[in-house]
Structure formats: structure tokens, C-alpha cells
Amino acid sequence: MGLFPYQFRKFQEDLVKAITAATASSSHLVLESGTGTGKTVCALAGTLETALKENKKILYLTRTNSQQQQVILELRRINESTPVFGVALQGRQNTCPLIQHDAELKSGTPEELSKLCGEKKSKTISGKNGGCRFYQETIATNFEEIQNYCAETLPTVEEFFDYCDQRGLCPHELTKDLLAQATVVAAPYVYFFSPFIRQRLLDWMNISEADLIVIIDEAHNLPEYARETRSFRLSAKVLELISKELDDFGDPEVLEGISIRDLAEEIKLLLKKAQEEYLIEDDGMIPPDFLEAGLMSSFSITSYALKAAAESIAEFGETIRDAKRKKGRLPRSYIFSLGNFLQLWMETYEEFYVKLIIGGDNPAFEAYCMDPAIACLPIFDCYASLHMSGTLSPLNEYRASIGVPEDAKSIILPSPFDPARRVVLYADDVTTRYEDLLKDEEIIRKMEDYTVAVCNACRKNTAVFFPSYTLMDRFLADRIVYRLKQRVFMERKGMQQHELMAEVNGFKNSQPAIIFAVMGGRVSEGIDFPGSELEIEILEGIPYPKPTAKQRALLHYYEIKFGKGWEYTVKAPVTRRLLQTLGRLIRTEEDRGIALILDKRATQFSDKFRSTLSETPVNDILNFFIDKKS
Questions:
Q1: What is the DSSP secondary structure assignment for residue 280, as one 8-state letter?
Q2: Which of 47, 232, 262, 442 falls between 20 and 30 A from 215, CA-CA?
């Protein structure tokens, strides 16, 4: 308890005690505690008690890079009284100086960038051309000086990047070297849930899973994240790129009379056939053996021969990757991706996967993993783990989904904030219900009018949250930005971290201003907006998932496995996204804010939060702030 650096607020002492007890007993704790209750510092204080006594290390996993900053800031406060060294780690895409100046490298996967980095470091050490000037400067610098700087300041990733940039050093390489001395490491999910990267991280930290305490922040995101990490696809664009790669590197036979191009062209035909026969709007379920049966029939080969061909394709692709790596290029081979895809596709278990045809501009075959527990197994090899979120209920669904041991404890602590300080209104003449939008497109116009009226009349920092980027794009296509009197900032799909933070900081510093974001995105989770930085939210509908084949398959899988398909795959995730989004309004005891949900279905969540019908939202919101002043 002596590590907690502040005066305890309501429930915080209970929170630290529960975390300390679970960690000390080498067990796993599932914890829900309301948004804004200081879970980050409580988690650090509680787990550090055991880590320092038992010589363990803490891996603090965050869903996004922006959430790491809070970990480092809280660690600094603890460090003021109890010296503890911590490091924040991000991927090469954000911390490699070479990548920041090379558009091709920015698109590289962690594995590709790791291979390329290894080649450049080897050339640097041997004095050959094609090395890395940042690595050269890094190995020549005084590492003790770097250690002292980091121990004294505990820099965030951004601060350390700037420090290294001024000296021509590589922050990624230096961070890896610092990990062995760190008691706390903050990193994105991928560093643990990708098997390839996890092994690298454990090597850098010089530790085994058995001596690791894992904290999973915003754990409500973990089931879907884990499913995505074990899913894979082959798209039409990749097949086109394979054709170009074959033109450059040749087209060897992988079976007698059958070349890689022959197989790739047949897969294109099967992709088209799957679209024609099984695609319904966004996607469609295909027979589990559709692709391999089609290839075996077309070429009159056995499944054994097809597996041998896939292996040969991957081996040829690997030679291409090696050739590119040695030339200092991104070691990417689409031919390798094809071989790897075919091998994985034929090895998947129908019990855990559904095979799909995905539509759109880039149609694809996808094997979607429906069981997140497959990717989460390594958590429970660790010394202890803490799974925490402000919106984790129902806890039974979370525990069952990722395979939490039955003897693990679960705790729910309520928010300490006065619920009267957050008011939620809703309008009952609009909705984003899919069937209703198909019948009446004017609903979108009415939602846009509500949004414009509230933003222009209330003149407060306002976040407009959309259930999807698709709906946001519709609003933008309707030129809503030109109807708004305040500056509009935006969270866009695929934004780099520095781009997003520039938008967020611009929004915070341009009061009054507006920010467009997505429920379930980085702005709606893990970024704080205290005081006047955010006073109004407009939720453009309820973020129900579209009834795709993938969603139906997942619902069916959970219905068979747990008997609660709808509750676990629809109602629970939607509730969590709503509560996370509404949680941005109240981050301290002094905060006060109001939200308007533009969807009549808000009443379906009355057991989770109180909402009031508003027939005149602008007046009701203005009156809320008048009452605040009085």
C-alpha cells in the first residue's frame, strides 16, 4: 500500500488491496472498475508490491499506443518515493528513424521490418554499404548516459524519440537494450499475443513467462483482438501482386506441369465463383473445403500434393524475401504470403474457424477464428495476470471467452462519481437500425440536423461519436463540416499515432471545438478529457454490429458453446462500447457533462445507464449548463 502516490479516493484503497492480494498469491484477477477511477495507478501500485518483493517483472499491455503515456506518467509519481524503472515500448513503425523517412517501410509487418533491421545492423557492424547510420551512432554512444537519462526522467515513447532524434540515435534499439533492467514494461497488445513478437520481447526482457505479471488494460477489447490475431485472409489485390512478382522473379513449377501462376490464376477464378454463389452484401459463408476442393478438382491432384505445393510456394517466396533483405529492401513476398495462407487454410480446425468470402473493393477468402481462448493461452502460463476495464460486464462472458481459470477471482467496483453529474438524453425519432435506414434515408438527414443544431447552439467542446467509419464518411460526404461553426478535428481510419494525437491536442486547445470519432476507436477509449476539454457528446446511433455472415457465425458458435449467443456476441460488446464512450465525459469528481444519443434504441440499455427522452435536445442541453452555473 505504501507505493500508492496519492491520497486515496473512494474505492481506490479496496482496488489496490484486491490487486495486491491476487498478485501475491500468483493468481489471475478479472476486475471491473468504473471509468476515471484511477485503474492505471492502482494496477501499478498493487502489482509492484509483489514484483519488487519476488523479483518479478510487470508487462502492462495497452490496446493503443496513446494509453501507454498514462502508464509512464503514473510510474513517475511512484518513482518519486520508491525508485522503480519502467520503459514504454512501441513497434518500429513508430520508433525507427529510417522508417519515418521511407513510405515503403512504413507498410512493413513486424516480421518484415525485423528481418530488414537485422540485415542493416549486420552491414553496419561489418562496415559494408547499406547499413544504418542511426544504428552506427547508437553503438558508438555511451549507453550509461542513456540509462541515466531514462532512469531520471522515465520518458514517454514520444519524449524518448525526440531525445534520440536530436542525437541521431535509434530509439527502438536503445529501448530494447533498456528492457532487461526495467521492472515495468508498457507495450501494445501485439507484443504479447503475437507468438513471434512475444518470444522476442521475453528475450529482450531476459525473463520467462513464469516470472511475468501481465496487466491487460481495457480488457473488454481482448476477445475480439485475440480472434483477429488468429484470423487470416487472401485478397484479390494480393493475387494481382503475386502475378507481378512472378514476372520479376520467375514462375517455377511446384507440381509436375503446374506452376505458381497456374495455382494463383485458379484461385482468382474460385474467388470470383465464391462471390457469385455465396456473397450476400459484405460477406458470405463458404463450404469449409471450397478452396482446396476446387484446386484439387481443377488440377486433378490429391490433398497431399496440394499441401506439398503450398510448402514449395512458401519456400520460393522465402528466397525472394532473402534476396530483397540483402539488397536493403523491405523483405516482402506476396508469393510467400500465398504459400503461407494455403498451409494455414488447410490446417484450420472447423470447430474454431469459419471460412468466408469477403466482398467490397478487395474481395478475399478469410478464415475467421471464433475462439479467442486459442490466442490467450499464454496469459495463464504467467506468474499472475490482471484483466481490468471500466466496462467488462458480464464478467462470465469475458472469463469464458478467453479461458480464465475457474479458481480466478472476479471483482466489480462501482464508479465513485455522482451519477447526477452525467446526464444522458436520447431522441426517439431517429435510429441507425439497419432495416430502418434501408426504408428511410431521411433518418440520416435528421441526425445531421440534430448534430448541427446542438454544436452551433451550445458552443462547448463536443465529441461526435459514430458507430462506424462508414457512417462518419456519409456525414462528411453530405458536407456537414461546412454547416458547423466550430473547427472540426477528426479520428480517421488508419491514422498514425502522432497524427491522431495532433488532432486530439488541437481539439483540446481550440475550445470550443468539435471532434469526429468512432465508438470503439482510440478517442473513445484511453484518452482523458477533463473539465472543459469535453462537455458534450453526441452518439450517432447505437453501435450494433451489422448482421454479416461472420457475425452470425460467431453468434452461433457462442450459442452452441455457452448457450448465450446474442448476449455474448451482440448485447455485451455494444453495451461496453456505449459505456466506454459515455465514460469520456466524467474523469474527475469535478467533471460534468451531457450526452445525446441519436437513437430510439437507447432505452434497451436502461439497466446499464439512465437516459431521458428529449423532444428539444438543444434546449435541454443549454438548460443543463445554465443549471451548472447556478
A1: B
A2: 232
Rg, C-alpha atoms of the chain? 26
Evaluate if residue 283 carries a pLDDT over 90: yes
Same domain, 215 and 304: no
Q: Which three cell numbers stand for residue 242?
A: 503475386
Which run of H or of E encompasses 306?
helix 303-326
Report the candidate in 37, 40, 34 with the shortest Cα–Cα distance to residue 60: 40
DSSP 499-526: HHHHHHHHHHHSSS-EEEEETTSTTTSS
57 φ, ψ (degrees, to nearest 5): -120, 155
Q: How far apart are CA 496 and CA 205, in angstroms?
A: 27
Q: Are 518 and 469 in contact (CB under 8 A)?
A: yes
Q: Residue 630: what pLDDT? A: 45
pLDDT at 36 over 80: no
Give the distance, in angstroms, between the CA of residue 409 and the centroid of all CA atoms in the same chain.
Answer: 26
The maximal CA–CA distance of the chain, rounded, in angstroms, is: 85
pLDDT at 67: 79
Please indicate, yes or no, whether residues 46 and 152 belong to a single structural domain of this protein. Answer: yes
**In this structure, what CATH number is given to the domain that contains residue 363?**
1.10.275.40
- The pLDDT tens digits for 228-273 are 999 999 999 999 999 999 999 999 999 999 999 999 999 999 999 9
Q: CA nearest 173: which of 161, 162, 182?
A: 161
Are the CB atoms for 212 and 56 separated by under 8 Å? Answer: yes
Phi, psi at 37, each rounded to 5° = -95, 5
* Domain identity same for 91 and 124: yes
How many angstroms separate the CA atoms of 126 and 132, rounded? 12
DSSP lists the bridge partners of residue 385 as 28, 214
Residues 331 and 192 in one domain: no
Spell out the SS3 assignment of 4-18. CCCCCCCCHHHHHHH
Cell of 322: 532473402
Single-letter amino acid, residue 463: A
C-alpha cell at 230: 488468429
Q: Are 624 and 482 in contact (CB under 8 A)?
A: no
Average pLDDT of the residues in 486-496: 90
Type of residue numbered 25 = S
pLDDT number for residue 374? 93
Distances (CA, A) of 134 to 97, 161, 259: 7, 12, 42
Q: What pLDDT is attached to residue 261?
A: 97
* Residue 305, number of CB atoms within 10 A of its CB: 17
**113 and 219 together in one domain:** yes
Contact 240, 334 (CB under 8 A): no
Q: Is residue 6 part of a domain?
A: no
CA 75/CA 184 separation, integer angstroms: 9
Q: What is the mean pLDDT of the chain?
A: 91
Asked whether residue 275 falls in the same domain as residue 150, the answer is no
Burial grade of 166 (CB within 10 A; 0-12, 13-18, 19 or more): exposed
Q: Residue 491: give its domain's CATH number.
A: 3.40.50.300
Q: Is residue 101 part of a domain?
A: yes
- Considering the domain boundaries, does residue 350 fall inside one? yes
DSSP state of 474: H
pLDDT in tens, 70-90: 899 999 999 999 999 999 999
